[in-house]
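Researcher: Quick sanity check before group meeting.
Model: Go ahead. Protein one:
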Amino acid sequence: MKRRVTLTITTIIVIFLASCGDANKKQGTKMNTPAEIEAKKESSPKIADASFSDGMTGKVFQNYQQIRMALVNSDAEEVNLVAGNLAESFNGEKEEMKSMAMAMADAKDIEKQRELFSQFTGKVEPLFKESISEGAIYKQFCPMAFDGKGGYWISDVEEIRNPYYGEKMLKCGKVTETIK
């Protein structure tokens, strides 16, 4: 009996030690080379650290950027959701912008959302320009949008990501103004 208990305890200890040994072998770290780190930096978009003089404008800007990216990704449902949040950001004196955001939230067609976004950009641009207190944002333009009439948008990155065409013409456009 004593031999059986000793054998069982020894077996448990061996299994325990063997399993710990495997865990140590699975853990490890991989060091990236300087070239890999630099390549990752270059492939990451340069984000502007813009700040605004009031909280409402900062919230509007963040929601606006989320809508812009949803349009880049042609995600109409995401536009609906974020545009609803955007509408809630406005106080009473910005009723026109609030109703435009609500129209985007209610629109189900991505092309209608893009058209409303372009109109909204025209209304919200002065707010961003007046309220930016730190950093930079970028006014961008696609000459081919809306049957050649063109369309502007404001981005937090200098890199072009076209909200009016999405994947079809992702990099169509140019920076027309850096707003500081």
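Researcher: Fine. The other one?
Model: Protein two, sequence then structure:
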Amino acid sequence: MKELLISKLYSYLLDHHLDLLIALQEDHRLTPYLETKAGSVKELWEGLESENRPAYVIEALCLEELTRDLRPSRFNFMRDLLETEFDTAYRRWHKSGILAYEVINLIGACEPIFEIFGFGEESEDSRQLKYAIMGMVEEYLER
């Protein structure tokens, strides 16, 4: 089960937190991170196994717990904002193969804004957050 959860968590990071995945790889901390995270739900999966829950239920509940502190995704938020509000830059970066790189740079540039608004599930739909981020993206694109 642990190897399956590691694989699922890796896929989740690849789809939703490419910035974190790259940072962990650069620091050679990806494998320990994945193993530690997967190990953190050992009691949960063992308890569910002892209740004879189906494997897909165990997997889903464990993955839900593993990703709880990773939601929402700043990477997805920024990528979606670029696609909807800054379509020209989005398409140009996507076409040239640097979209992920630029999204990661923008997340870094917008870090103070994310912190001020306490980016999380409660604030990800905030209009004020969106407009503040859009202002920073405008500045970034002018450089």
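Researcher: One line on it for the slide.
Model: Residues 48 and 123 are 33 Å apart (CA to CA).
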